[in-house]
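Suppose you are handed a protein chain with no further information: no name, no annotation, nothing but its sequence. What can you learn? This example shows the usual starting point.
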Amino acid sequence: MDGESDMETASEAERVRLWLRDVIDRTGLTPTALARRAGLAPSTLNKFLNDDRVDHCLSVTTVGKIARASGQPLPIPAPGATEGARTVPVVGYVGAGATIYPMDDHPMGGGLEEAEAPPGIEPGQIIAVRVQGDSMAPTLQDGWLIYYSRSIVGVPHDCLGQLCVIKVADEGPTYVKFLYQGGKTGHFDLVGSAAQVMKDVPVEWAARVRWIKPA
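A reasonable first move is to predict its three-dimensional structure. Written in C-alpha cells, the prediction is:
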C-alpha cells in the first residue's frame, strides 16, 4: 500500500511539474519572477523544478497561488467540468468593500469551480471571481462573475477610468473598483460602486474587467 501511495504522489508531483513548466513557457516569466508575483519564496519553485530528489508535490495552496498569479488554469479541472469545454477557473469571490478573497484553500479542484470562458478570449489568458452579497450593487449583483487577465504587469494606461481588478502595493488587498490617476506617481484613486473614493492608493497592478456574466 505504501509503495502505491508513493507512486501516486510521485506521479502527481511530475504532473504539477510539467504544468509549472508550461506556465513559465506561456507567461515568459522566470521561476524566480513567477514565485515573487505569487508571493512565494523563489527557492520553492526553483528546487521543485530542478532538484530530481524532490518527489513530493507542491501544496494545494501553493498551486492555487501560482494559477491565480499567472492567469493560467489549474493542473486539473474542477468537478463537473466537461473535458474539452472552454472554461476558466473561478479563483475567488468579491465580498464586502469590493475586496477579492482567494479560494485556494481547498483540495485541488475540489473547492474551485469552473465557469464558461468569455467569447473570443482564450481560456488560458483569463480567470474569474464571483460576486457574493450586495456590497457592489447596483453595479454588480450577487452571483455575477467578473473576468480579468492576471498576466498584467503594472498599471496599463487603458485601465484609467475603467472598472478594474486592482492589487494594492506592499501586500495590500485586491479590489474591484474604478481606477483614476492619483496625485503622485504610482498612486491612484479607487472609486467604488456607491462613489466612495480611496485617494492616492499605491497600486502594484491593475487589470481591466474583460467580461461580466450575470447569474
